[in-house]
Amino acid sequence: MKQDETMKVKRYDDTNVNPDFVAERKKCTFNIELLTNIIDGSSYLTETRRQAQLAVLNNESFSNLPDRYYASRDEAYAQNIRKSAAYIKLLKEDKSISRAESYFMQCLIFPNEVPPFSLHTTMFTPTFESMADEEQKKLWMPRIENYEILGTYIQTEMGHGTNVRGLETTATFDPSTDEFIIHSPTLTSIKWWPGGLGKTCNCAIVMASLITNGRNEGIHPFIVQLRDFETHEPLKGGLTIGDIGTKLGFHGMDNGFVKFDQFRIPRRNMLMKSAKVTRDGTYQKEKKLEKLKYGSMVFVRAMLVFNQAGQGLAQAVTIAARYSCVRRQSEYAPGQEEPHIIEYQAQQHILFTELAASYIFYIAGNKLRELYFTMNYDIQKGDLSDLPELHALSAGLKALTLDEAVVGIERCRLICGGHGYSAASGIPKIYTEVVAACTYEGVHPVLYLQTARYLLKVYQAALLSSSASSLPDNQSSKYIFRHLHSERPRFHFPLSFVEIVEAFERRALMCIEKASKKLDGLLATGRPHHEAWNYSACYLIRAAKAHSHVYLTSSVHEQLETVRQEDAGVYTVLGQLFELYALKSIVDHAVEFIESCGITTDQINICIERIEALLLNIRPNVLPLVDAFDFPDRLLGSALGCYDGNVYQRLYEYALNSPLNKSTVNVAYFVYYIAINIS
Ligand SMILES: CCCCCCCCCCCCCCCCCCCCCC(=O)SCCNC(=O)CCNC(=O)[C@H](O)C(C)(C)COP(=O)(O)OP(=O)(O)OC[C@H]1O[C@@H](n2cnc3c(N)ncnc32)[C@H](O)[C@@H]1OP(=O)(O)O
Ligand SMILES: Cc1cc2nc3c(=O)[nH]c(=O)nc-3n(C[C@H](O)[C@H](O)[C@H](O)COP(=O)(O)OP(=O)(O)OC[C@H]3O[C@@H](n4cnc5c(N)ncnc54)[C@H](O)[C@@H]3O)c2cc1C
What we know:
With 679 residues, the chain is α+β, with helices and mostly antiparallel strands. Helix content is 54%, strand content 8%. The chain has 24 helices and 11 strands. A hairpin with a 5-residue loop joins strand 10 (275-277) and strand 11 (283-285). Helix 10 runs antiparallel to helix 12. It is globular and about 90 Å long. The structure holds ligand FFI and flavin-adenine dinucleotide (FAD). Flavin-adenine dinucleotide (FAD) binds next to strand 1 and helix 13.
């Protein structure tokens, strides 16, 4: 990114900081910058992020006007398009902007929003690049990279989302014209939900059942132009396109629908890397590349762990922590000043356990992102051997971390009392964005079951093998092989970090064993496989969750081992957060740990006592620990969570700006109430 020498705005305003915050920050016992580097992934990424954020803060085109919480849907959409236009212009002008820089800029330009063009970069382009043949890439990529083509990803229909094989939209080859005819045969086959489809995008990847020579060959991707490149009107010839209406959140996004009525596209608009239809209508496919079509779903799921679960929860925690260090409430000791609510153990228990979870999701999410890029390099070259592992990991972790994050965000809102319910707290906005990710890219029961399917295969292989050597080193399920044929150790309390990881592994192995036994038992009674699978679902889901917990704990433990060599202060605080997250999970799933690790209820009580001790350990560092996330105020969008802690002044300003305060007597009251009931 080109450096702008004229940058004026600082990322933080250090003047006029609430004195309570100044005192809190003085208690810090560790090197905040080093922790920030760990959260970002490296010191290089911290610097890159800061430069990108400064570029946004110094560019007036990216300001949020009108206030984001008072904007109507029309205004929110218009504002997103205005900012998108400026952002895309910048990307086109400055080709040196890297992928990481553009990512960091986008997060701040659209705080807690998925903007209308985002499907272009997260799903449309990656799917095209992965599924198009070389000739198609030459033809289309320059216009895709130049944003002349703005694309979305159209898969879900009104009647089918999860069951991709059940999609009804057809793409029938017509050899007489060398075209495919895209058609929505029923009401339920209308494509529904794609982001940016309603008003913004002019092209799309459409997933449809390919029919040629009278045979249905299954779901395939097609690139389809939807709107005229000059007038932006929907193309004639059989398209009905629109916005699907108001949702829980995503107000600035035009999630849309499209009904195809015998709409024609050239044959070569089928993406032909792994399968093709020749001029005479012959269908050919390369079986080994078949699963590439799922690739963009794996990509987004893997990114959601750090981007939505990690960052979303960390933002809510930052807001709740800062507010808890400002807010005073209740008489603690008779006659004394009311304490900050952070001093209440009940508050600390919720806040610090969520703080710990946000660190775990961020760090494990970074590791998953790196693993994705490493494994995907081979996958794109045609070696798909790592894909099942990547799919199982990304599906399970997307589900587990987002499940825990949305509960955590809501808990953070609740511990802010009444002001948490105001949009000005910023938490409702974070919640509605993050909770959407629990649905898009696959609902969680279904994703857990995908992970379980993989785990049972690994377990079967482990039963037949006597060592772990048949699995590559990077496989997260290697512990299944290791522990299946080894003695369970005796655990000592309080647990060491190494013992914590082994306890999670033993618990996961037991859950997998139980799921396998349950399934086999049902099969042995003569039930068909699909029925036995369905009635094992609760066991299978428990196994997938336990396995995902293994990845979280083992990857953060690995990070701790590196930090241990570098900095004692950071090692201590990160270790406390790791231990807190792990012990809380052990207590929450005590039955599974007692059964799998041979531990007693007394030892669970030791964990409960240890959690209380950790709350006291973490207390002095609470503000520095959220400062380490390094969120600019604009990203948080919160009166309660600002860096300077001037909560009440900002809440008052927010209320004064309410559109209802533009007049002293509201016209509706005058016209309806006074006119009818008083005159
Ligand atoms: C710091 C630096 C930064 C760096 C920069 C980087 C920054 C980037 C930042 C980005 C930030 C993000 C922002 C977000 C914005 C997003 C906006 C919203 C987007 C929303 C888009 C959508 O919402 S878009 C629709 C998604 N809709 C689903 O998600 C449907 C779920 N439904 C299914 O996913 C299937 O339908 C389901 C269930 C498998 C059954 O399908 P099915 O019946 O065919 O499957 P079966 O169970 O029979 O499985 C058949 C065999 O396929 C295997 N397999 C199945 N899936 C596989 C897979 N994915 N990969 C591999 N393999 C797979 C399976 O494991 C079996 O393998 P095997 O036979 O060997 O066992
Ligand atoms: C904000 C948002 C943005 C989206 N963006 C896009 C987009 O850009 N492009 C796109 O194509 N789609 C998009 N979607 C659609 C999204 O991917 C689907 O909603 C999602 O995959 C779930 O499908 P569904 O809504 O049909 O739910 P269903 O499949 O009908 O599932 C409903 C419920 O049934 C249960 N269930 C279903 N199947 C099973 C099963 N096999 N086993 C156990 N339980 C089951 C689950 O509890 C599930 O929650 C978006 C959705 C949202 C909310």
